[in-house]
What does this fold into?
Amino acid sequence: MLAGRHIYSFYRGFGSDNDLDFSRRSSFDRDVMLERIYPRRIILPMRQHYGENCVPVVKVGESVTIGQCVGAPNPGTMAVTVHSGISGKVKDIRPIVLPDGVMCDAVFIEGDNKRTYHPSVRPRNNVNISATSVMGIIRDAGIVGLGGEGTPTVAKINRAKRLKVKELLINCLQSEPYAASDYLTLSEYADYVIMGAVALAGACGVHVINILISKDHKYEISTLRTAMERTSTRYSGYVFNFIYLKQRYPQGYYRMVAKALYDVNLEEGECLEDICHAVMFNCSTVYACWNAIAESMPLVSRVISISTEEGIKHNVVAPVGTPVSELFENVNGISSTSKRVIWGNCLTGIELTDPDNTPIIKTTSGICVITRQEDLRAPCSLCGRCQDACPMGLEPNMLYGLIGAGKDKAADKIHADRCIGCGACSYVCPSYLNLASVIGEYASAKRKTVSFPFSSVGDRRWLDDVTLLSADSVKVAENLKKKDDSLTLPFEGWENR
It folds into this structure.
């Protein structure tokens, strides 16, 4: 059942032998039980994913419970439901601006400290449900890619089915320095990750499941193997493989995975499903899917890595919408700070200025606190280090100069739009130039929405007409598919295809 193969990695980027690599120093705190944060209030933006805004379905003054839907998509829009992670009362609904520039309405909820759950949130006694129902549950639970891309998970499943992919990839390659939220998910919820992988494989119509993980994470590999042994009687006909990759940044990005596994350079608008016949899900996303299937719990919380330069490294489970300031109040050694607070991980995150009114969202995997340094920038020395580090094979120093001079056409000729904003060039630059921010923002503005791998009309089918307010209702999903759908969980009696 368990095979494994070793793959070196993609070319360039940078490896783990650097002074940002926490794994070679002190590790994150490992508590007996992963700490849970219970905030006094939450702020729920109506857009926390790739796509369009939801519409609030609650009113000011209304009482809400944990797992209750507070935001739903308009019919025909690429939007995902939003649920409350605390019980309490809606205090306000007003527009906000997130650090990444997203402008949308947000629902402000003040907690009542009762932790009352919505009636729909209860263990599912019978998981012998169709693959179509699995898709409906995942859609209604508001699950998106938790690795950072934020693609609606049901849209990715639908795309995989339509393109008839041959294998499912579980991305356990969190490689950004100080980030450990995915590894804590693997450690704490390995059984749910394995069963979630089986559920997603069944929904996508594949039976080969490849777990992508760094060979250095021996503890997480061991927990996954143990979980497979415990749950092996609950599935049949599925093949699990471990694929070990060298620790390298930004290893988990889908284009880097395509290069490492299939020796394919994906161009803008191309995706794994179409070119490589594989579909990839982040391991935290997989966990969230099985939590929705088994417990009827929508995506209302996630693991967050909190780190500082002083060596405070902590992982907590927090409701989506928790203000950053309340996270700090629950971590010893962090309070109000004059340092830079990064919304996200240290290389790809965005500085925020108002921790009291900036919430974590579904795609927020970390919060970093770093020293605010004086401007140390110097003229480019043409050393070429940024070119050596760029995983996309670009020339960041040239692009930085052209964009700064307003020579857009020249920048486009040397493929500025291929920048993925990983931050590797800025990290290695001895002149402290803000290369990644300048080039990444330019590239993002140049890309057209229609070129995104998950924006086609066919992907919207499973996001249309969502008016469901409970996590376990799948009537609309069932009505969308009338033909035979005999696949059931836990997938006994798989028929070879």
The chain has four domains: 2-29+122-297, 42-111, 301-370, 385-447. The domain at 42-111 is CATH 2.40.50 (OB fold (Dihydrolipoamide Acetyltransferase, E2P)). The CA atoms of residues 16 and 113 lie 43 Å apart.
